[in-house]
Amino acid sequence: MSEEVLDELDLNKFNTSPVGRMRLIPAVRKCRKFRFNSRLLAGKSKQCSHPNFSEPPDVYWNIVASALKSNPSHMTGLDLSGSNLSDLAVKFLCEGLESSNCKLEILRLKNCSLSKVHCDVLALALKSNPSHLIELDLSENNLQESDIQPLLDLLPSPDSKLETLRWF
Fold it and tell me: What is the DSSP letter of 2?
C-alpha cells in the first residue's frame, strides 16, 4: 500500500469481484474521501462465501473505524450509502466518530437500513466528541422525526459543528 494519501477512493467504481473489493478496504486508511456500498459484496454483510476469504465483512467496518481513529486521520468524507449496516458496523463507525483524531466532515448513510437505535448511538458518539462533522445524510432509511430527535438536538448546540442533517 502506498504511503501517499489519496484524495478519493471509491470502491464502487472498481471492476472487480466482491473479494477484490474487500481486499482494497484497508486502503481506506490512506484517503481523504471513501465511498463504499457493502451490498456489492457477496452475502450482504454476511460471511463471504469465497473459499479464500472467510472473514465476515463486519471486520472491514472495524478497518473503516480505525481510519477515523488513526493519528493522523486523513478522512474528511465517508459515503457508505446503500450499505446494509449491521448493529456491529454502526458500533464500529461510532467508535471512530468518538475518537479525538476523527476529522470527518461529511458522513453519508443514505439507504443503510438504519433504525432509531442507530440514530441514538450516532447522537451519543457525536455528543461525546464534538467532531468536525458538518453534514450527515440519513435519507431513505424510513426514519421518523422522533427517531432522529437526538440528532436534531445537535443542530442548535454550540458544541456541535453539525449544520446539515438529511433524513427523509
Answer: -
